[in-house]
Amino acid sequence: MRIPAHSVCTAIRDDIVSGVYERGSRLTEELLARRYGVSRVPVREALRTLESEGFVTTRRHAGACVAEPTEREAADLLELRMLLEPLGAARAAQRRTEAHLKVLRGLVRLGQERARRGEGEDLRSLGGWFHETLAQASGSPGLIALLTQLRHKIAWMYAVEQPARPAESWAEHGAIVDAVARGDAERARALTAQHAERAVGAHRLRRPDRPGRRTAPPPRVSSSQHGVNIAGVRH
């Protein structure tokens, strides 16, 4: 079975973000094909996509390498997110479906519950799902793609501290959902801008890894794509 290039792209991107491949390290088609159990054709296509996204760069005499973004480039990403997330929330207030609202409200309930229990790791995942769903609710494929790419790159470049008052953070999420549900685009925009601005302070720039870092065992790429599992969200 031919493994699609987007599956290989996702696997390589995930390994770059998680630090399996250090910044500046070479990415040879042969080694990547062996690691993921695929031919060189989808690897070549995946590297082209990752280069367009800024995760990979091509160097003369070296070929494809993991990009080495500057601190200014990293700071630009946070600024872009502060501009685009409020736009996404405003669009969501105008275009969301009842299904989007159901998932958003369920995530807020779970987030508030986990915040009361102090379950930080669950909150990190729930927060990611919340912002992904809010972006999906914007109904704008181009905006969704940009926000998804920003989330990946910010996760690659920054470590994010848990909020000191997680219950307040989830109360902000709840207020955003209320504005989206009412169709109040301007309030959804303003609340999301405030939330994004406060979140910037929790980001700490990751420093390049030291040589000799241990890497994860080679994975196999699945030919199927799995979306976010929201079956456990109580409605």
UniProtKB/TrEMBL annotation:
Chain residue ranges for the region called Disordered: 194-235
Keywords, in A-Z order: DNA-binding, Transcription, Transcription regulation
Domain HTH gntR-type: 2-69
One Pfam family from the record: GntR
SMART domains: FCD, HTH_GNTR
PROSITE patterns assigned to the protein according to its UniProt record, in alphabetical order: HTH_GNTR
SUPFAM superfamilies: GntR ligand-binding domain-like, Winged helix' DNA-binding domain
InterPro entries: GntR_C (IPR011711), TF_FadR/GntR_C (IPR008920), Tscrpt_reg_HTH_GntR (IPR000524), WH-like_DNA-bd_sf (IPR036388), WH_DNA-bd_sf (IPR036390)
CDD domains named in the record: WHTH_GntR
Protein's name in the database: GntR family transcriptional regulator
Organism this protein belongs to: Streptomyces stephensoniae
